[in-house]
Design a protein that fits this description.
This is Mobile element protein. The protein has 280 residues and is an alpha/beta fold. 41% of the residues lie in helices and 13% in strands.
Length: 280
């Protein structure tokens, strides 16, 4: 090898025996930390959240360095998969005006909620997940699962959110124009809780962008391509763990300045103004 590369044998052995520099040791320590975080969060973090997590653990590093090291060592976040659109707006039920008007950064909790449904594939067939998200903290405050997309699916999620948060007057609940949300069943529950209904415009998926983003994160981080759940019960158990133990409590959210929804709410002080990047 030395002859082929035109280097001396003594020079090669001197290079092999040379101790690591402080920079080499720091890079290796950072790679070890990246691998630990990657394993701990099951491959759910790309470079921005990885950098935020390392910084919180008192590793001095830039996102560019993290990107380079992750690429060099083949460490990457899970890849998102495509999912089926579940909205059925082909009905004659009454729909509400778009009162939210894409104002997805309210000034406090329990001001604006957003709701939607997505599909979850399993080897037993589809199961559907309905969620209610508090737009202030991006926290999932209510959710339910069922093999069918009847109105009971979205009502269960809403009732759990109301029971958990006990919102006061003035709450706005936004959704798409799907038949489940336009149903008399759902509308009666909203009215009984004193919640005002808002619905997206026709074909305007961006009107519900935060919940769509949550679904994208869940499917990328929990169920990447080729990782089908075996049963409905397994899907329910793993989604419970993802939402209640990870997403709400631990996961660093880019819209919240890379803190978790729980931490963002803990930091809340009604005398301060909050933006999508955190406290001003």
């Amino acid at each position: 090898m030395c002859e082929a590369l035109e280097v001396s044998a003594s020079g090669y052995y001197a290079w092999v025996d040379r101790p690591d520099t402080p920079t080499d040791e720091w890079r290796q320590e950072l790679v070890d930390a990246i691998e630990d975080v990657h394993a701990e969060f099951q491959g759910r973090y790309g470079s921005p959240r990885m950098t935020a997590e390392l910084t919180a653990r008192e590793y001095a590093c830039s996102e560019n360095t993290v990107v380079k090291l992750m690429r060099e060592h083949g460490i990457r976040a899970n890849i998102p998969r495509r999912f089926v659109r579940t909205t059925d707006s082909n009905h004659r039920l009454p729909v509400a005006d778009n009162l939210l008007a894409r104002n997805v950064d309210p000034s406090g909790p329990n001001t604006s909620w957003s709701a939607d449904i997505t599909d979850i594939p399993t080897r037993e067939g589809w199961v559907y997940l309905a969620v209610v998200e508090d737009l202030f903290s991006r926290r999932i405050v209510g959710w339910s699962m069922d093999p069918t997309m009847e109105s009971r699916l979205v009502v269960d999620a809403l009732e759990r959110a109301v029971a958990r948060r006990r919102p006061g007057a003035g709450l706005l609940a936004h959704s798409d124009r799907g038949s489940q949300y336009a149903s008399d069943h759902y509308q009666r529950v909203l009215a009984a809780a004193g919640i005002t209904c808002s619905m997206s415009g026709v074909g305007q998926c961006w009107d519900n962008a935060p919940v769509e983003s949550f679904f994208g994160s869940l499917k990328r981080e929990l169920a990447p391509p080729g990782n089908l759940f075996h049963t409905h019960e397994q899907a329910r158990a793993e989604i419970f763990e993802y939402i209640e133990a990870f997403y709400n409590r631990v996961r660093r959210h880019s819209a919240l300045g890379y803190v978790s929804p729980k931490e963002f709410e803990r930091m809340y002080n009604p005398t301060h103004r909050y933006t999508s990047r955190g406290q001003e």
